[in-house]
Write a structure and sequence with these properties.
7 strands; four-stranded antiparallel β-sheet; single chain; 214 residues; globular; alpha+beta; 6 helices
Length: 214
């Protein structure tokens, strides 16, 4: 599957609160919560010269009190955009990898005996509060996080692992067609290394398979 197609799935699975389409580029704004939801995505070709586009993007983010940020992939347009940005003083930050797996090869995984996995029919306050606590998300982002998660259009799976009725791990799965993406995967620090996260992720992926993910 090509990068542009994967980027399309990713953008729909993790929506911004506000998006502007500007000459082949997608500008995303979400009150500063997460880099990918507050970045320029240079996806397609354009008509305007690059200097005009960069000045416009920088002005739009500055106007909203955000630092201009570009999400680059090997398919970014133009191909030398990373060098152009470095020449303007930009620095590379938060490198990430998008990996895919054939779900037919999904190995079995079970949580420790004292841990049970709970599925939410929709985003719940319990899941959201636990996610923010486990991830260390600032409390003032609560409304923004809730609004972003509720904007996800594809099918969602909000799942948690609980020990003694306390949530110790959470995972979000987002399924569209034959693809399911994993987001917000986090396990409580003192509960790691026991297979809880592995079991929870495996559970969510299997939910995706049941609903058509491959």
């Amino acid at each position: 599957m090509d990068i542009q197609t994967l980027e399309g799935y990713s953008l729909r699975a993790w929506p911004a609160l506000h998006e502007d389409h500007y000459d082949g580029w997608l500008l995303r704004f979400t009150n500063g919560y997460t880099s990918r939801a507050n970045s320029v995505n240079p996806l397609y070709g354009s008509m305007l010269d690059i200097e005009t586009k960069l000045r416009h993007c920088e002005a739009e983010y500055t106007r909203r009190g955000l630092s201009p940020r570009f999400k680059l992939t090997p398919a970014a347009y133009p191909a030398d955009l990373d060098h152009l940005l470095e020449a303007r003083g930009y620095e590379r930050q938060t490198p990430s990898q998008m990996m895919t797996v054939d779900l037919a090869q999904l190995p079995p995984a079970a949580p420790p005996p004292a841990v049970r996995i709970v599925d939410e029919a929709d985003l719940s306050d319990d899941w959201l509060t636990a996610y923010m606590r486990l991830s260390g998300v600032r409390p003032d982002y609560l409304d923004t996080v809730r609004a972003l998660l509720r904007r996800i259009a594809p099918q969602t799976f909000f799942s948690s692992a609980r020990r003694d009725d306390q949530i110790v791990a959470v995972t979000l799965g987002v399924r569209e067609g034959e693809m399911i993406g994993l987001f917000d995967v986090v396990t409580q620090t003192d509960q790691r290394g026991q297979g809880i996260g592995t079991a929870l992720v495996t559970h969510v992926l299997k939910q995706g398979v049941v609903n058509g993910a491959r």
